[in-house]
């Protein structure tokens, strides 16, 4: 009996350890935690107006900038509580090089001089905290990229 309890405990611990982090909605695809900048073709960023409409577009293709954004997404800490928020400042579409994987999108709240928040579109009830430094870095990346008029 003791051996069975130990085996069951080990199996539970293994399954629990393998399911840490943000959930992957597409079990056949790489989860965001596993993405590297080599997986990403580009990140398309849309500015969002106060009514929630997409505005001008920035296309991020620089590898260092993509790496910074991915690292921010992968290290963002979950925030407690229900989300009751205004429209985001930006929406970003992460386009992967593998055309068989549907692009993922995130919403970004990046207020001036404070922490920000990311919400993954496939789990919109959970927000993730972005540090002041990450917030500032993402804003600088968006501002450094050529902005195209909205389509």
Structure description:
The chain has helices at residues 2-18, 63-75, 132-144, and strands at residues 40-48, 54-60, 77-78, 90-96, 104-109, 116-120, 127-130, 147-148. It has 151 residues and is of the alpha+beta class. The protein has one domain (37-145): Sandwich (Immunoglobulin-like). It has an 8-stranded antiparallel β-sheet with strand order 3-7-6-5-4-1-2-8, with helices on one face. β6 and β7 (127-130) form a beta hairpin. α2 (63-75) packs antiparallel against α3 (132-144). The radius of gyration is 18 Å and the shape is globular. Residues 2-23 and 25-30 have low confidence and may be disordered.
Write the layout of secondary structure elements.
Layout: H1 2-18, E1 40-48, E2 54-60, H2 63-75, E3 77-78, E4 90-96, E5 104-109, E6 116-120, E7 127-130, H3 132-144, E8 147-148
Keywords:
Immunoglobulin-like; 151 residues; 28% strand; alpha+beta
Shape type: globular
Structural class: alpha+beta
Let me know the number of strands. Answer: 8
**Number of helical regions:** 3
Report the mean per-residue pLDDT as an integer.
77
Under the CATH scheme, which architecture would be assigned?
Sandwich
Strand coverage percent: 25-35%
Give the low-pLDDT segments: 2-23, 25-30
Kindly report the oligomeric state of this protein: single chain
Domain YhfM-like: 40-146
Protein name: YhfM-like domain-containing protein
């Amino acid at each position: 009996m003791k051996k069975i309890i130990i085996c069951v405990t080990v199996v539970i611990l293994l399954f629990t350890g393998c399911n840490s982090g943000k959930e992957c909605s597409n079990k056949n695809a790489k989860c965001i935690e596993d993405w590297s900048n080599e997986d990403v073709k580009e990140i398309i960023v849309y500015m969002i107006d106060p009514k929630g409409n997409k505005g001008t577009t920035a296309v991020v293709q620089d590898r260092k900038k993509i790496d910074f954004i991915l690292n921010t997404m992968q290290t963002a800490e979950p925030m407690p509580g229900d989300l009751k928020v205004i429209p985001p400042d930006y929406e970003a579409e992460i386009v992967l090089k593998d055309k068989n994987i549907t692009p993922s999108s995130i919403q970004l709240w990046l207020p001036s001089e404070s922490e920000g928040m990311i919400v993954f579109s496939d789990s919109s009830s959970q927000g993730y905290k972005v540090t002041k430094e990450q917030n500032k870095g993402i804003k600088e990346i968006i501002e450094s990229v050529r902005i195209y008029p909205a389509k």
